[in-house]
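thought: user wants a sequence for this fold. calling inverse folding tool.
action: design(structure=
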């Protein structure tokens, strides 16, 4: 997927507002990683200038993606940690904040009796409307400062 600034604005206007307003990036290229272990993944390349995208050597970028996939596969095979505990980096503040998003997503889904895609849409919309990150909204939902019913009603 190749998306320069004009494409981003047309296809993902809310994402584009956040990207352009909060970062120096003006274009995104997402290339698939080979499914070596399980599931699908992508390597995302962000560009400060849309005009730099045509200069990307896609074959080199895909080769880097294959190296990443290979390294991750090797790491999984030779790691000393169990799947339940994970590597040390998963226990830091950033991964914990992201994990809270998943927990809050489940809470919203159950409390509002909606599927996870609808719950995620509600959470994203509310976070955007509040000028907050999804992680901040999730923390509010889990602490009780924000109620799931407020997301459905569009309340702040």
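)
observation: tool returned 156 residues.
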């Amino acid at each position: 997927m190749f998306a320069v600034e004009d494409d981003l604005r047309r296809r993902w206007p809310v994402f584009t507002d956040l990207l352009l307003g909060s970062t120096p990036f003006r274009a995104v290229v997402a290339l698939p990683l080979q499914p070596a272990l399980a599931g699908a993944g992508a390597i995302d390349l962000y560009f400060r200038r849309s005009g730099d995208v045509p200069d990307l050597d896609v074959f080199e970028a895909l080769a880097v993606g294959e190296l990443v996939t290979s390294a991750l596969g090797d790491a999984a095979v030779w790691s000393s940690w169990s799947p339940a505990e994970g590597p040390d980096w998963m226990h830091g503040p950033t991964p914990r904040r992201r994990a809270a998003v998943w927990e809050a997503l489940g809470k919203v889904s159950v409390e509002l009796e909606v599927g996870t895609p609808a719950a995620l849409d509600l959470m994203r919309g509310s976070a955007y409307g509040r000028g907050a990150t999804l992680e901040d909204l999730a923390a509010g939902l889990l602490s009780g400062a924000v109620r799931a019913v407020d997301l459905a009603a569009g309340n702040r």
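thought: summarizing for user.
answer: Here is the designed sequence. Residues 2-78 form one domain.
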